[in-house]
Amino acid sequence: MIFITAGIFYxxxxxxxxxxxxxxxxxxxxxxxxxDTKLAEAGSGQSEANDWLVVAREHRxxxxxxxxxxxxxxxxAKMPVxxxxxxxxxxxxxxxxxxxxxxxxxxNTVLSxxxxxxxxxxxxxxxxxxxxVQTNYGKFEYIITRTWITTPDDRTVIVPHKKPVLxxxxxxxxxxxxxxxxxxxxxxxxxxxxx
Length: 195
Fold this sequence. Notes:
The chain is built from 3 helices and 8 strands, in the order H-H-E-E-H-E-E-E-E-E-E. By secondary structure, the chain is an alpha+beta fold. It has 2 domains: 2-44; 63-193, Sortase, Chain: A, CATH 2.40.260. The chain has an 8-stranded mixed β-barrel. Helix 3 (87-90) links the parallel strand 2 and strand 3. It starts with a helix and ends with a strand. It comes from Thermoactinomyces mirandus. This is Class D sortase. Keywords: Hydrolase.
């Protein structure tokens, strides 16, 4: 009888101990996995990137709002960026094509300006030159990768991109009197978020 009682006690103790240890191991593994995921996100900057993308979307400007500044170090120029590309907006500064993403977001941010006002000197820019866009959710650095001349109806200028790209458009030739027959395009890839 003593052996039976001792056997039941031992089996109960061992079973309980096994279940407790198993629970601790599983909990520890889940916690480790979550911690590893957070560390990986922090290491890749993914969590931070998602944070500012949310901020960018929350600060979507209304038509006519001055929401950013385009800074062109080579030209020593700082220009207001306004939501919209109609004449009213372009009189205020550089216009953000409303169908494009905000600066810093993955895809193609398209900015337009008049060749005889804000963009009168952009013909001096070359591949390798820097462009900066300062917003209330961050400052972004872009490097010009190419420039080209195209027709006004060329929609490839506004096509989506997988990476963050900044596209500047203006009428061309710069010295043309009257409505210009072509468009001058500057495209730049985002290098980093500075702030």
